[in-house]
Protein: CSN8/PSMD8/EIF3K domain-containing protein
Amino acid sequence: MLMENLDQLASELETQELQASGGVASPQLYGKLLAIYLYQHDLCNAKFLWKRIPAHIKAENVELRNIWAVGKSMWQRDMNACYTLVTKTEWSDNVASIMRALTDSVRERCLNLVSNAYSSVTVDTVSQLLGTSDVVAVAKEHGWTVEGNMVSPVRKTIPQAQTTSTEEQLHRLTSFVSILEN
Structure:
């Protein structure tokens, strides 16, 4: 499954949920939709989905509860628990690829957080945020320096969108309008 298609798949699953007979969808549908919301880091929709899943389906489906446990750890920003839950749980084929992609997505978000929020941070903190014990390898990969128990991340440069001045925009608009009038 391509992760680029998840927006479309989420939309289809939402439609299927709305059209489900008796207003109750299958646990597999709920599980896949919940996993997609987590992958998209759409924690509000994930929480609302969890609240509208009937209690008997939550009680009967262990995987659904495990997916929500990952969601709760993300909501509470407990990345260590999030990585542990995702890697230690045996996922069904229904959600396995999404949960693997979720791990990479969370790790990438945390990498960006660390590189943009810290000038120096402890190895333990980086280890917990990135879910890895090999902080030195991650630091080398991203050009960070490690001295003793401290990591000095390098701030990622974000390409700035090219902006134009108001006068330049007005000049372009005027030129465009005069071309249209001719």
In short: The first strand starts at residue 121 and ends at 122. DSSP finds ten helices and three strands in the chain.
